[in-house]
KTSC domain-containing protein (Pontixanthobacter rizhaonensis), 69 residues
Amino acid sequence: MEMHNVDSSNVAAVGYEEDSQTLQVEFNNGGTYQYFDVPQAIFDGLLGASSVGQYLNQHVKGTYRYSRV
């Protein structure tokens, strides 16, 4: 999965696997999580967000199943 570095105080990088609709988020604290069944539009929004952490909290956390990697 190709990871994209982001400018965020909490998130280091994000990646997306279109075939499985899996969003991967690497946090600055070293934790990495995968979120499942995430539409491409959510990933696109995350990449374009002025605040990646805020977008993640509003649109991903608590909405999609996840697993720590």
